[in-house]
Amino acid sequence: MSVHIFRKEITFQPDSSRVIARFHYSGDERSKQLIVLILNLSEKQQQQELSNVFRKYAKRHRSIIKIFERHFQRLSAVLNVMEIDPHSLHTDQKLLIGAYFTMEYSIEAAAFFNPSIVEDPDQSRTGPGEKRVILSFRATGEGHISSIVFRSAVIDENNLIVVEQPGRMLNAPEHVRNHVYKKKSFLAKLGEMQNFENAAYPVIQQKLTETFTYEELKRYVEETKKQIEIDAQSHVFLREIMWLASSHYEMDFSLDTDISERVIFPIADTEKRGIEDARFVKFANDKNELVYYATYTAYDGTSILPKLLMTKDFYHFKVLPIHGEIAQNKGMALFPRKINGRYAMLCRIDGVNNYIAFSDNISIWREAMMIQSPKYPWEFVQIGNCGSPLETEAGWLVLTHGVGPMREYVLGASLFELDNPQKEIGRLEQPLLVPNRKEREGYVPNVVYSCGALIHNDTLIIPYAVSDYASTYATVDLKELLAALTQNVATQ
To answer: Which of 63, 87, 215, 469 is in the most buried spot, having the most CB atoms within 10 Å?
Structure first.
């Protein structure tokens, strides 16, 4: 039984004019030379240069003075080495130095793709049959560095997505708070990840103070590397220490920003080459409070690591680690509620098959069981999820992606039992969505992909990326889809 899918005309395109002002650092020595050159300018020249910067860039960024102040403050270690007291500099000097250590970055110049969709926590001022939603995207700019961005929209009674005009003043988080760690609890969490049977552990244990920051831990690790001969076990141990530490931080966005202006840009060392494919889900916790989680992939240029983003209002975000034996590979997707009292997660630990995992702790995932393997020709290369499962009366609806010949990515759908999601009820024999002639051309040809869908008015709303360049969406009648999934299992 084939399922009708209706593509919509809206397209989310990359826009190179959307820029953020990010910190620009070229190493300690070059930074020292640059600061000397700036301070050697006469007072009049400094004022002229600063005025020139304001004239060119003040209208492109909200509170650019605050940006320059923040970037100047990040130079405290260099200024300390140079024996320059920041209090001895006047305001214009600080701002000019901050400007020289700032660059514009076009966050979505290269691609705008891999969307997910969730219900907005604010449903006021919506009409009958309407729902306000938040779309998230993976935006990619220079150097293929990825960040997470958002759009606000309303799905109307006819299942058309009406996107609000995005704001122009993009903002990175106004405040980023690194975690302050307690030695006892930090070592306990580390022990959940691996054992302490290596040469580095006793050295680090002795160095750790009762409380410490990320920067202090970084120094302890570097000292340990110089103090002992690092074997393979010690190398893994020290790397896990830094990963665990860098995976705890919080972000606050200014209340006067529109959601389309908030950019979650890589912050931690483990994310420096990008944060990818956030799968947002509205989660009902044990207190019946709504929390939004997003699993995403952090990339440091060598390794990929899964992490967890948490928010209640899309202004304040917490970043948490995902660790344990199965915390690997891409594509972890959290169920929207606990099942039989435990968190549940879809994952693909071997890069080929679909798995499910259960845990009492949302950050620790130990074991997984395979629930799907490639079955049809269009998924022979690999199968994976396209976002968190959707709860229906018939079962958990899971959008999947399959990879077939010529590395063509297509979307499929499967159904799993509500109380026993290890058991597959049905799977579409044919793809739900295949790249058409228009969609197959792009940065990565022949790919359609999604990070999450939503049910509205008995219709499945599927935002999806086309060839890793732009995004669009399609709709499917939910009853027709569920009928096809349950019919297939009856005939198998």
So the answer is: 469
